[in-house]
Design goal:
The protein has 356 residues and is an all-alpha fold. It has 13 helices and no strands. The protein is 78% helix and 0% strand. Helix 3 crosses helix 4, helix 6 packs antiparallel against helix 7 and helix 8 packs antiparallel against helix 9.
């Protein structure tokens, strides 16, 4: 089962230009050639033990995300084995970081995977929606903590204002997750309004979208479950942050504790902008600049940022695309089995998904 991309020429051009822009930003932000050469020397003598810890931290981050999916799916009445969800997580991470059209493509890939494993349309959509908001809350909380640590000891009004603004964002995000029924009802209203104005989505498709949104509103989520989901989503980011911390150990450099969490949070937010695929160049450059501003040596900041990105981005992409191939092979075997023995439970003849 591979993602159905269907990219237009415009999207491909934007993707290529984004990659070139990211490389240009990386070269500009990392500074002089001498610093790049020095960073290369640091990478040539990395501490393998710390690199292994960085890989373990990133693997744990992805495992927690798989566990998060497992928990949210169970709350919605679906159940997919953890091994399958971890394989999906690896594949989805690679797609999210390397395929044009994000975040729509990776979300569609996950949705189709859930549906092929017998989750209803409402359950699959609700799971993606809930995890998306929980991740936003987790990142907001970590970014707020990073701001507080960076501004520790500061009595300026600016520092206080930033902290209060961050706290408001976290509370507002939590309120959206708790009262997600209101958001889903609003989404249904937008679908109907779009139909009246543009005529799309047409006919039965629009009705199915509205029906799915209505069923999603009926899935319960208690305060205790909400807290658990947010904690797990925060843990996903936290372990990824530990990967960056291990990067400093790998290049034999001290961690600039006052600014490292802030630098991580800013880099993740900026890297998520749909401008440069996977935040290439932007993440590395912003990390290096902010870390250097908070006391890390420029060469150490560049080197640690590169170690972090090699593990969390490039290695994850390589492993993830292997996982995409494994999932596709599993789907083909399942299709052959269904063709030979008839459709499995919950499927119609020909392996089609049941109507929702």
């Amino acid at each position: 089962m591979t993602p159905e991309v269907g990219l237009s020429r415009k999207e491909v051009i934007r993707y290529v230009l984004g990659v070139l822009l990211g490389i240009g930003i990386l070269l500009l932000l990392l500074g002089k050639r001498g610093e790049l050469v020095a960073a290369g020397h640091e990478l040539g003598r990395v501490n393998i033990g710390w690199v292994a810890l960085a890989v373990m931290a990133e693997a744990l981050s992805l495992w927690i995300f798989a566990r998060l999916q497992h928990r949210v799916l169970r709350l919605s009445g679906a159940s997919i084995p953890m091994t399958s969800l971890y394989l999906l997580t690896l594949a989805n991470d690679a797609i999210a970081n390397s395929v044009p059209g994000e975040p729509a493509i990776s979300s569609a890939y996950r949705y189709r995977y859930y549906r092929r494993h017998q989750a209803t349309g409402a359950s699959a959509g609700w799971t993606i929606f809930t995890i998306l908001i929980a991740q936003a809350i987790g990142m907001s909380a970590l970014l707020l903590l990073g701001v507080v640590v960076a501004l520790a000891g500061s009595t300026s009004a600016t520092g206080t204002g930033v902290t209060v603004a961050g706290l408001v964002i976290v509370i507002a995000s939590g309120a959206i997750l708790v009262r997600r029924d209101l958001v889903l009802r609003l989404a249904g209203l937008l679908v109907r309004a779009t139909q009246r104005v543009t005529g799309h989505p047409r006919g039965s498709i629009g009705a199915r979208v509205e029906a799915t949104l209505a069923r999603m509103r009926e899935i319960p989520l208690s305060t205790q479950s909400t807290a658990g989901i947010v904690i797990m989503a925060t843990g996903v980011w936290g372990c990824d942050f530990l990967c960056l911390v291990c990067g400093f150990g790998a290049v034999h450099a001290p961690v600039p504790w006052t600014g490292v969490l802030l630098a991580y949070g800013v880099a993740q937010v900026v890297g998520a902008l749909p401008i440069v695929p996977g935040g290439i160049g932007i993440v590395e450059g912003s990390l290096a600049v902010i870390l250097a501003a908070y006391g890390a040596g420029r060469v150490a900041a560049i080197s640690a940022a590169l170690v972090y990105r090699i593990v969390s981005f490039w290695l994850a992409i390589a492993v993830g695309w292997i996982s995409v191939g494994v999932i596709a092979q599993q789907a083909r075997r399942r299709s052959r089995r269904d063709a030979a023995h008839g459709p499995g439970p919950g499927r119609q003849a020909g392996g089609a998904l049941p109507p929702q």
